[in-house]
Amino acid sequence: MKILVCISQVPDTTTKISFVDNDTRFNEDKVQYIVNPYDEWYALVRALELKETLGGNVTIITVGTSAVDAVIRKALAIGADDAVRIDMDPSDAFSVAKSIADYATGKGYDIILAGKETIDYNGSEVPGMIAALLNLPFIALGSKLDIEGNSAVVEVELDGGIEVIKTTLPAVISAAKGMAEARIPNMRGIMAARTKNIEVIPGTASALVGVKKFTLPNAKSAVKLIDPDNMDQLVELLHSEAKVI
Amino acid sequence: MSKDRFQGHDYYQIDDLLTDEQKLIRDTVRAWVKQEVTPIIEDYAQRAEFPKHLLKGLAEIGAFGPYIPVEYGGQGLDQITYGLIMQEIERGDSGIRSTASVQSSLVMYPIYKYGSEEQRRKYLPKLATGELMGCFGLTEPDSGSDPGSMITNIKDKGDHYLLNGAKMWISNAPFADIAVVWAKNDEGKIRGIIVERGMEGFTTPETHDKWSLRASATGELVFDNVRVPKENLLPNVEGLKGPLGCLNSARYGIAWGVIGAAMDCYDSALRYSKERVQFGKPLAGFQLQQKKLAEMITEITKAQLLCWRLGVLRNEDRATPGQISMAKRNNVNMAIEIAREARQIHGGMGITGEYPIMRHMMNLESVITYEGTHDIHLLITGMDITGENAFK
Ligand SMILES: Cc1cc2nc3c(=O)[nH]c(=O)nc-3n(C[C@H](O)[C@H](O)[C@H](O)COP(=O)(O)OP(=O)(O)OC[C@H]3O[C@@H](n4cnc5c(N)ncnc54)[C@H](O)[C@@H]3O)c2cc1C
């Protein structure tokens, strides 16, 4: 089983968000980066589990400048065999997907896995685009992934139910919560990551879209507490102030 | 205990001084502590039991001998990484950190530094994986701050040594497989000797009813005519500089470790003060509470910088015992003060096991006493700067 796992770095969930350059760029000052949780906890760990039972190789791929090397090392410490870094600024989904698809072409990957979205821009675009560019089947939001012969069987959670989808390999699959359980690297893995190879290659596509402006959501307004005995006031406020009824 | 919402605190961007690998290891140990230590530690501390099931995980995250060379089973890591590991473990609990400190600095370090090649190969790899656990016997009932006054002794009996005496306050003693014991020989010189569980006449009764380090096992080492093979003597050191060399390494780790306990208390107090509303606004909005919180982060930041610099000096093998004493004394005191203030910010909640504060505060009473008391470290600094010995 030859597996390619797409990972990206995202700001730590506690980051205070602000913008610079006339609100066109995310302010990276003092930001701590982590591996996107959907990529790390689910896609990467499931890939490692498949490798452990079926044999094979897990390569991680990411688009970014050398600033992303720290998150690559973490993914290697968790257990990926080697890494590819496409050396360019990941400024839109297309340039990222196209560069990854170009790299993967002809390499014989059985599965390309990615997280269902990144927790910063939440675009959910890259894995679908990779599948389209490579002309491969795509299953989004898999919460369980098993291999049966030459097929992948994927469970996708629906509102109140589960859909089981089967496709022949190779395929592109995006991972949602439940596909695996997060692993903490151990010291042996961290030491082994020191000598694992990170291949650096240039990007092969440029961005098709660019950000014009970011705005922050309005600050949350104060909460009004209403006495449970005073239902009339609640109804009145929902009507006149909140304007929801 | 309520859910562990801890976040690290780095007011001066000291992370910029760390390598990617140092940060990866720190964050890994932090994640491990969140997953394995904080959910269970309050319960073990309340029941005064050491969570022995953590030993395997501690070994896997590199807590046992991280700076011991790879060929002896260690990780060959630098001193700052060792410090960061201690910090994160003590963020969970000083007792668990004590176990890791003892194993690394007081058992593996002397065997590595003063042991024969056979001793290194026999013990170090198994100590690194936790297959063997060790303890360190220096303190005696009548010999605490003044270890030179010890009476535990070894007599040369030709083909073996005969060991007699008793050690007390020994961390890990109740379950340790081996003990590095300091004893006087026929000439009254202090020597180190490795005693193994099972040797006839060697027992390790547990010390009960502690109000501090309740999740750490403490006990005595009692030697009643124990025959110890001659090859168990540590050949390469003689005199007090043997145990003191180990203590330097352990004290250095403690100086980092207590930053973890202090950060946990500060982190909890900061969050609590923002969430708890009295007199119509969050506690964090009152000047008196801000003074406490602002002073806490100031002291934590100073302690972090002190440790970072000391780590650089240790990596270059230039840190003096006086510098290590200063860091141990300053940082433990800083942590205990923060624990006490943080306890008050939590009001009544601060005395419960819902929050880690009271446990840290009580633990730190041991930490400020062991490995050289607060007073003793001041005397070391005093002697260093004046040239006058004020111990006697
Ligand atoms: C939980 C715990 C775990 C421990 N683990 C270990 C272990 O693993 N191995 C080990 O060998 N030991 C261990 N110890 C022992 C510890 O190192 C000693 O308690 C410590 O060195 C102090 O010795 P003491 O308790 O005999 O106090 P004492 O030396 O009797 O000191 C009592 C007080 O007198 C002060 N004092 C002493 N001498 C002077 C002086 N010259 N001038 C001014 N003031 C002075 C001290 O500062 C202190 O305040 C542990 C202790 C505890 C509490």
Protein model, in words:
- The complex is a heterodimer of chains A (245) and B (392).
- Chain A is of the alpha/beta class and 245 residues long.
- Chain A has one domain (2-214): 3-Layer(aba) Sandwich (Rossmann fold), CATH 3.40.50.
- Chain A contains 6 helices and 13 strands.
- In chain A, the strands form 3 sheets. A 9-stranded mixed sheet of chain A has the order 11-10-9-12-8-1-6-7-13, sandwiched between helices. Chain A has a two-stranded antiparallel sheet with strand order 2-5. A two-stranded antiparallel ribbon of chain A has the order 3-4.
- In chain A, strand 3 and strand 4 form a beta hairpin.
- The mean pLDDT of chain A is 94.
- Chain B has 392 residues and is of the alpha+beta class.
- In chain B, the strands form 3 sheets. Chain B has a 4-stranded antiparallel sheet with strand order 2-3-7-6, covered by helices on one side. A 3-stranded mixed sheet of chain B has the order 1-4-5, with helices on one face. A two-stranded antiparallel ribbon of chain B has the order 8-9.
- In chain B, strand 2 and strand 3 (160-171) form a beta hairpin.
- The model of chain B has no long low-confidence stretch (mean pLDDT 97).
- The chains are: A alpha/beta (245), B alpha+beta (392).
- The A-B interface holds A 14, 30, 32, 69-70, 73-74, 77, 184-188, 190-191, 194 and B 7, 13, 15, 20-21, 23-25, 28, 31-32, 35, 60-62, 66, 75.
- The site of flavin-adenine dinucleotide has 22 residues of chain B, from strand 1, strand 3 and helix 10.
